[in-house]
């Protein structure tokens, strides 16, 4: 149930981030709904395909699509009358990243995969939707920008897995993993933290 709720909340906040980006680049209503859906289900779809989980989660359970439509529609109504707060995209994206990364890791873990696959699937679930959103809106994907993004997801997933191995309750491990991702992501934005750059060849 916790995993399912995390997925639904993650879908909702990523749909919101998709609408905010669509509004920023002046897409129409259809473009807004399409970008919301792509952001919300892109990472989970890629995860399910690679893990051979069929039917894909949003085909198996149409409630995901209803959550996307509701979250996108409410966001559109809101921004039609009030400007979104300046940091709303960062907050929605960070929350979606945290929830999806940990839920993706749990799904890979439940399938019996190794530590590296759990980390990879979790990070992919959390980052792929946002990357597709940014590419389709002609923006540089956040994962390729200076602020820590995928690194935040990896840190939270590693914390989650370690706490699981130490025998802590799953709810504690999940909560800590989500908080680590949120903390690293927010601190990266506020303080401008980033990984070292590759030195220029030649």
From TrEMBL:
Pfam families: Gly_transporter. Signal peptide: none annotated. Residues 5-77, 91-164 form the Glycine transporter domain. It is found in: Cell membrane. This is Trimeric intracellular cation channel family protein. It comes from the Bacteria. PANTHER family: INNER MEMBRANE PROTEIN, UPF0126 INNER MEMBRANE PROTEIN YADS-RELATED. InterPro entries: Gly_transporter. Keywords: Cell membrane, Membrane, Transmembrane, Transmembrane helix. The keyword Transmembrane helix applies. It comes from Dyella acidiphila.
């Amino acid at each position: 149930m916790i995993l399912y709720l995390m997925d639904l909340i993650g879908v909702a906040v990523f749909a919101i981030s998709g609408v905010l980006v669509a509004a920023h680049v002046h897409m129409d209503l259809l473009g807004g709904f399409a970008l919301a859906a792509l952001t919300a289900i892109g990472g989970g779809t890629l995860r399910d395909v690679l893990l051979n989980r069929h039917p894909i989660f949003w085909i198996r359970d149409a409630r995901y699509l209803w959550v996307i439509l509701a979250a996108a529609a409410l966001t559109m109504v809101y921004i039609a009358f009030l400007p979104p707060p300046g940091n709303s995209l960062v907050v929605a994206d960070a929350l979606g990243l945290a929830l999806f990364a940990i839920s993706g890791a749990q799904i890979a873990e439940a399938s019996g995969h190794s530590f590296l696959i759990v980390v990879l699937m979790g990070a992919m679930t959390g980052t792929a939707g946002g990357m597709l959103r940014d590419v389709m809106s002609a923006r540089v994907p956040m994962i390729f920008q200076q602020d820590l993004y995928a690194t935040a997801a990896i840190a939270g997933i590693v914390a989650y897995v370690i706490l699981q191995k130490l025998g802590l309750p799953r709810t504690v491990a999940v909560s800590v993993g989500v908080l680590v991702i949120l903390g690293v992501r927010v601190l990266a934005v506020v303080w401008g933290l980033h990984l070292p750059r590759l030195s220029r060849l030649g």
